[in-house]
Each structure stands twice: as structure tokens, then as C-alpha cells.
Amino acid sequence: xxxxxxxxxxxxxxxxxxxxxxxxAFINQMEGKLAxxxxxxxxxxxxxYVFLTGLSVIYAVFHLFRYVSGNANIGVLVEKGIYLLFVxxxxxxxxxxxxxxxxxxTELAGVMQKSILRDDKLMGPAVHLFKVAESLQWDSGNxxxxxxxxxxxxxxxxxxxxxxAIVGALxxxxxxxxxxxxxxxGLSLIPTLLIPQLSSLFDGWMRLFFGxxxxxxxxxxxxxxxxxxxxxxxGAAYGSAVPxxxxxxxxxxxxxxxxxxxxxxGIVFLSATGFTVGKITGGGAVxxxxxxxxxxxxxxLAGKVI
Length: 306
Hints:
The structure is a single chain. Helix 2 (about 15-35) packs parallel to helix 6, helix 3 packs antiparallel against helix 4 (about 75-115) and helix 7 runs antiparallel to helix 8 (about 255-270). Helix content is about 75%, strand content about 0%. It is elongated, with a radius of gyration of 27 Å. It is an all-alpha fold. It has 10 helices and 3 strands, in the order E-H-H-H-H-H-E-H-H-E-H-H-H. It has helices at about 10-15, 15-35, 45-70, 75-115, 125-135, 150-190, 200-235, 255-270, 275-280, 290-305; strands at about 5, 135-140, 245.
């Protein structure tokens, strides 16, 4: 009778050290290329720094004029001065802060995965799901008629399994590429903090940046959950080298549909990761205006100084 057998060998299920090393090298190289791009050594960085310098001069002259003309007291002047220092502090520490914030979420996701799967490799779960799908084997039998129907059912399960692995890999990689894009864009939006009517642009960038950071954590949690379900259904323990089979012998079409349903639901849940992240970042502290928060901090600090 037809069976879908799982035979995961040590070579198949071994974590792809070479791939992860290559991926880690890619991350380090990208960070190395971004560092000079975001500094004054590049034309892009110089343009932004010159633009911020010009805005800072206008900002300082405007508020100094208000103080001299009697439209603002010394407290307001000190507050605006401190706020300007905050903006420049953000500008000079931008590359380091974004690196450590995103790195913190990535590390947290890795710790969570390692606590459950004893492995923190970024692509580990996706590669494991690929091996699960790749190891499906179809034996001839009489429950399902050999021929077109049997082949169609086999390939439908195989395609869904491979698609799940591909989507899993994309979910793991997506926030990393998004982080690089957001990091390049964010620097150019810091000067908008000196323009009240445009400061909301930086707030939008903050939601984008933290969206990618939270995506790292949520996406990894969904991947780990899918791997655990695969272990229950297929007996394919993460890191296991023991031949396993799904629910024993598969002798009914319902058992084949269970496999298809698992792969399909996994694809749906992974595809909904962005929606879940949107629900998280749509409220709470992420919606607090950065400019407003910095203004409040400057006001409180000015009150202590004066």
C-alpha cells in the first residue's frame, strides 16, 4: 500500500554550517559597507550632515531671535538648545544605536529558538522543513491507483512542502534585508525632527524599523512552532538522524491530506507574519512621536538646569 516515508540522514539534517557562515559573512560585509555610507566620508552622508547643519543654524537663529524679541523666555531657549543637542546626538550615534537595537531583537529570537530547538541558526528551521519535504518517498500500492492520480497526489504534497520551506527561508531573511533598507533611509529623515510639520516622517520610519525588528522575533517564533508540529506529525525531530515515518504507514487519502494541510497551514501562518507584526506595531509605544518625546525630555532637563 502507498506510504509516505521519512528517512532523514545525518547528512541531510545537519545544520548548514557553510551556508550560515556565508550568511553571517554577508551580514558583516553589509554592515561594513553601510558604515562609510552613513558617515561624512560618502557623498550621501555629507549631504545629510550639511543639510542638518544648515537646518540647525536656522533653528538656532530662529529661537534666539524669539528670545531676543521677548517672545520666548530663557527656559524655552535652553529647552530648544537641549533638543538640538538631542538631534545631533541621534545623528552621530545613529549607526551604532540601530545596529544594537536590531541586533538585540535578533539575539532574543536566537535565544528563543535555541531554548526550544537547541540551535540558533537563522536558516536552521527553514532548511529542516526543506529536508522534511525532500525526504518524502512514495511507494507503489493499491489504495491509491498507480498512475496519474498517485503522481499528482505525491507532487502536490512535495510542492507544498518545498513551498513551505521557501516561505520559511524568506520569513527568516526578510527582516534582515528590511533592516538594511530602513537603516539607509532613516539617516536622511533625522533632519526632519527640526521641522515640526515633517517630524512625523521620522516617526513613520521608527515604526518601519521596529516592524522589521519585531518581525525577526515573531517570524522565528512561527518557524519554531511549525518545526515542532512537524515533529509531532512526521516524527522528524529537529537534529534527529533516526529514520522516521509520518503516522506510521499512510494507507488512506485522509493521511495524505493531513500532510498537505500541515504544509498549507504553515504557509498561511508564515505569510501572515507581516499582518501580526502590523497589529503589534500599530499601537503602544511605537506610536509615540520621537520628536515629541525628545521635546519632553529637553523640557524636563531644561527645568533642572535653570
